[in-house]
Design a protein that fits this description.
By secondary structure, the protein is mostly helical. Helices cover 46% and strands 11% of the residues. Strands 1-2 form a two-stranded antiparallel ribbon. It starts with a helix and ends in a 23-residue tail after the last strand. The model has no long low-confidence stretch (mean pLDDT 78).
Length: 89
């Protein structure tokens, strides 16, 4: 595709994406803004271990969820599954 055609295609795609975002924003403003913020945080922290906190509306209960496995800091932290040998039968 020639350079001009590529630029035209990119401009058209960008406009269509914006139109879709505007439609979503108008349909559910709060949800759209929250989703955009979460996507930005996810992208910025993609290589960082995350801990999520979930609170109820009155902030009376907070739950912390660590959704990743425990990081390995050394060989002593590695769990080796037991292997049944002929002596265990």
């Amino acid at each position: 595709m020639p350079q001009r055609g590529w630029r035209l295609c990119l401009a058209r795609a960008t406009g269509e994406r914006f139109a879709g975002q505007l439609k979503a924003y108008r349909a559910a403003k709060e949800i759209y803004i929250r989703e955009q913020r979460l996507m930005a945080i996810e992208e910025a922290l993609k290589n960082i271990r995350k801990i999520f906190t979930v609170a109820d509306q009155n902030d009376t209960q907070i739950t912390i969820l660590d959704l990743q496995e425990k990081p390995i800091t050394g060989l002593l932290d590695v769990e080796i599954p037991s292997v049944r040998g002929s002596s265990e039968r």
